[in-house]
């Protein structure tokens, strides 16, 4: 059985020694480090370009701090974010959460802590992605149902058929035209509106 693909991680840490140590730790743990940068602006730029599975951001960085970078990365739906800091103040944790971070790790950390925090963040990101997709699917189904319910009376009045027959008519037209029932229903309603 094939191994699952390694998570692709971008690291942003302004202290070079810590950045190198972090990259080495991540690679030793089996992650693919796609980039390592020294400031928040570079993190946003590289994350936008590379679309990693996770971005690890130090809070205190030059040019653009980690919290501002996290906010930009998360709000643009580029990648999930994990914050790294030397401080564990409540206010900072709250601000990281507000910025959209899925995890928060205080330095110095050990490799086991780092891996556990990364795995939790990646799992939460997958769950959020699935929920977003489910919501989009439900929204699409609801919109289709509304369109069909609007089109059935048009067909019933025009063709003098029952509601179940109107539904089957839309269903057959969608199959014949190789499009969705929603598309057929919306076209029917639009045609009826133009006719008046």
Structure description:
The protein has 196 residues and is α/β, with parallel strands linked by helices. Helices cover 62% and strands 13% of the residues. It is built from seven helices and five strands. It has helices at residues 16-28, 40-50, 66-75, 90-98, 111-159, 163-177, 181-195; strands at residues 8-12, 32-37, 54-58, 81-85, 103-106. A five-stranded parallel β-sheet has the order 2-1-3-4-5, sandwiched between helices. Helix 2 (40-50) runs parallel beside helix 3 (66-75), helix 5 (111-159) packs across helix 6 and helix 5 (111-159) crosses helix 7 (181-195). The longest helix has 49 residues, at 111-159. It is elongated. The protein starts with 7 loop residues before the first strand and ends with a helix. 29% of the residues are buried.
What's the layout of helices and strands?
Blueprint: E1 8-12, H1 16-28, E2 32-37, H2 40-50, E3 54-58, H3 66-75, E4 81-85, H4 90-98, E5 103-106, H5 111-159, H6 163-177, H7 181-195
Parallel strand pairs: 1-2, 1-3, 3-4, 4-5
Helix pairs in contact: 2-3, 5-6, 5-7, 6-7
Are there runs of 5+ residues with pLDDT below 50, and where?
none
The main sheet orders its strands as 2-1-3-4-5
Radius of gyration: 25 Å
Shape: elongated
The overall average pLDDT, rounded, is 85
Helix and strand sequence? EHEHEHEHEHHH
What percent of residues adopt helix (DSSP H or I)? 55-70%
Name the beta content range.
5-15%
How large is the count of helical segments? 7
* Gap between N and C termini: 62 Å
What class, by secondary structure content?
alpha/beta
Largest sheet, described in full?
5 strands, parallel
What is the tally of beta strands?
Answer: 5
